Amino acid sequence: MASSQKKRSGFMIQREGHRLVAPDGRDVLALAEQFQFKVASVANELGIQVQELENALKKTTGIGPKEYFRRHRIILAQRYLRMGYGPEQIVSLLGFSHYTHLAREVKLFYGMTITAWTKQEQKRCMEPSFAFG
Question: Taking the chain, what is the end-to-end CA distance rounded to the nearest angstrom?
Answer without folding.
Answer: 50
